[in-house]
Automatic annotation (TrEMBL):
Belongs to the class-II aminoacyl-tRNA synthetase family. ProS type 2 subfamily. Homodimer. It holds the Pfam family HGTP_anticodon. It catalyses: tRNA(Pro) + L-proline + ATP = L-prolyl-tRNA(Pro) + AMP + diphosphate. GO terms for molecular function: ATP binding; proline-tRNA ligase activity. Gene3D superfamilies: Anticodon-binding domain, Bira Bifunctional Protein, Domain 2. PROSITE patterns: AA_TRNA_LIGASE_II. The gene is proS. This is Proline--tRNA ligase.
Length: 439
């Protein structure tokens, strides 16, 4: 992409109403624009990162054996009356009527819709296990939308629903989700710690939230510092292997880690004092096992091997896809701007032309641009006639992992300057070596 042809409306001023750094940086970097309270337009750069995050979520869900589909955002209230949640859900639900005065709502979550799809088609235990999921816009009329995409009213969420014959199978689905979530967050350069939590309006007994530690997080968390030493890494996993998934759950929940809702001072005090941590965290996902709560209420049954009709065991599992942009920036930035982890960066490398219009410099930039594209990278080439300082500031703000600076002085020596955004280190290299270093 050439910056002269792109749409990147960066702001020079720091927006006054943005309280936290990720919100400020997303506005300044031209990623989002608020259109009304808690509702955002995703400008090209923000949309690009959103898609990258979404793709990682899809990839890991599909690896875990879960099946993507898409539900509508608008639902009929009838299904929610059937499950008993219509009245209970409260003011976070945006309710409306169509021209025939039928009650409708904008989906805040989709247990009812998925349960309805399931009961419409699935009859036999032989069709289980089954996990369906979607990545779709949700609406919750939050009383205090704030912090940009972190607490929006309209937000993008991955929500998955497992249907199983037995509790044991459903707990395996729970564990599969835990493993796939650990992998998902790590691919985005994030450490998200599973913490025992409270189930809230979804209902159920077993639930973990995934929290990214950050001072600006809205949850208070209590944990044993040893939990932060655990990483999933690139170990092989067979998602069909119950024992293997269970072992991962046990490992990652082996240390005390709870949100304030389930925090137990007596148990916490058993952790050696020097390892006890009280901190703040951003909830980036949550998994639930809730048994037959919805299948009982909505009559979602299958025939078991003996021919009996039994309600299916279910769980639901969410990832805050749009909130993740905020969480990633909270964890990866400096005074000059964002520092994207490689896995989610909107472009891999920025090219800064120090003397636009100079034949040799323009030529070298074009050659580099083509070579990077040929290697499968997405470069962003600042080909505008602008001061070097302004170009550097933009590149630092939008946070691409690498910057290549091309100018007449370097070219005389046959070198370009390669700068790493995270460390700030620069090296002078030939074009060939520059490309090799980025790889
Ligand atoms: P919170 O406690 O932050 O209100 P929640 O527990 O109500 O979140 P869930 O129902 O567990 O949310 O939804 C799954 C995920 O969707 C959450 O873990 C979070 O990452 C994301 N999410 C929930 N509400 C919002 C929101 N208003 N804006 C952005 N993301 C959200
Ligand atoms: Mg909430
Ligand atoms: Mg919550
Ligand atoms: Mg939650």
């Amino acid at each position: 992409m050439r910056l002269s042809r792109y749409f990147l409306p960066v702001l020079k001023e720091t927006p006054a109403d943005a309280q936290i750094v990720s919100h400020r940086l997303m506005l300044r970097a031209g990623m989002i624009k608020q259109t009304s309270a808690g509702i955002y337009a995703w400008l090209p750069l923000g949309f690009k990162v959103l898609r990258k995050i979404e793709n990682i979520v899809h990839d890991e869900q599909i690896k875990a054996g879960h099946i993507p589909m898409q539900m509508p955002t608008l639902q009929s209230a009838d299904l929610w009356r059937e499950s008993g949640r219509y009245d209970g859900y409260g003011q976070e639900m945006l309710r409306m009527q169509d021209r025939h005065e039928r009650d409708m709502l904008f989906s805040p979550t989709a247990e009812e819709l998925f349960t309805d799809i399931f009961r419409s088609y699935v009859r036999s235990y032989k069709d289980l296990p089954l996990t369906l999921y979607q990545i779709q816009w949700k609406f919750r009329d939050e009383i205090r939308p704030r912090f940009g995409v972190m607490r929006g009213r309209e937000f993008y969420m991955k929500d998955g629903y497992n249907f199983d014959l037995t509790k044991e199978d459903a707990l395996h689905a729970y564990n599969r989700h835990l493993v796939s979530y650990l992998r998902t967050y790590e691919r985005m350069g994030l450490q998200a710690i599973p913490m025992r939590a409270d189930s809230g309006p979804i209902g159920g007994d077993d639930t973990h939230e995934f929290l990214v530690l950050a001072d600006t997080g809205e949850s208070e968390v209590f944990y044993d510092s040893e939990i932060t030493d655990l990483t999933f890494g690139d170990r092989e996993i067979d998602f069909a292997d119950k024992a293997q998934c269970q072992a991962v759950l046990e490992e990652f929940t082996s240390r005390y880690a709870r949100t304030d809702e389930t925090h137990d001072e007596a148990i916490f005090n058993e952790v050696p004092e020097e390892r006890r941590r009280v901190a703040r965290g951003i909830e980036v996902g949550q998994i639930f096992y809730f048994g037959t709560k919805y299948s009982d209420a909505m009559n979602a049954t299958v025939q078991d091997a003996e021919g009996n009709k039994v309600p299916v065991h279910m769980g639901s599992h969410g990832i805050g896809v749009s909130r993740l942009l905020g969480a990633i920036i909270e964890a990866n930035h400096d005074d000059n701007g964002i520092i994207w982890p490689e896995g989610v960066t909107p472009f891999h490398v920025g090219i800064v032309n120090l003397k636009q219009g100079d034949e040799a410099t323009d030529g070298a930039c074009e050659q580099l641009y083509a070579a990077l594209e040929a290697e499968g990278f997405e470069p962003l080439y600042d080909d505008r006639k602008d001061r070097a300082g302004a170009k550097f500031a933009t590149m630092d703000l939008i946070g691409l992992p690498w910057r290549v600076t091309v100018g007449p002085r370097g070219l005389e020596k046959g070198v370009l300057e390669l700068t790493c955004r995270r460390t700030g280190e620069s090296v002078e290299l030939s074009m060939e070596d520059t490309i090799a270093r980025i790889k």
